TrEMBL record:
A family per Pfam: Glyoxalase_6
Protein name in the entry: VOC family protein
InterPro entries linked to this entry: Glyas_Bleomycin-R_OHBP_Dase, Glyoxalase_6, VOC_core
Species annotation: Streptomyces sioyaensis
CDD domains for this protein: VOC
Superkingdom, natural source: Bacteria
Domain VOC: residue ranges: 8-125
Amino acid sequence: MAGRPRFSLGTVVLDCADAHVLAGFYRRLLGWEVTYSEPDWVLVRDPDGGTGLSFQSEPGYQAPVWPERPGEQQKMLHLDMRVDDLDEAEAYAVAAGATRADFQPQDDVRVLLDPAGHPLCLFLH
């Protein structure tokens, strides 16, 4: 091959039980817009541009456990979100549908779980 072809990350896809429920949570949390929707797949994007988030319904979806435990469903990824104020951001995310994880590994990071159980970490800028 003469050179590397051009790649750019268009979206990160999160599997879940209900794409519309999870897309609604992230739409509320981030203030992003739904830009494409099918019965089992939804794309949300920042109106200012950048990489989007997509959500795909999977009939056999099993939520990951946090923290990970041998023999249980492991997480495949998690999202890190920069915030200005941890307490304020956590309260907003919980009001939007997140839950605070029981295990918090650091004082300067908050681990939440989105409605599908994916870990979501909030950290200061």
